[in-house]
Amino acid sequence: MTRVTTEIKDHVAHVTLVRDDKMNAVDPDMAEAVVAAGAELAGNADIRAVVISGKGKAFCAGLDVASFAKFAAQDPIERVLPRTHGPSNLMQQVCMAWREVPVPVIAAVHGVAFGAGLQLAMGADIRIAHPETKLAIMEMKWGLVPDMGGMTIWPQLIRSDVLRLLTYTAEPVTAQQGLDWGLVTELNDDPLARAQALATTIAGKSPSAIRAAKRLIGVAESGADEKTVLYEESREQADLIGGAHQMEVIAANMQGRAPKF
Question: pTM for this structure?
Answer without folding.
Answer: 0.95
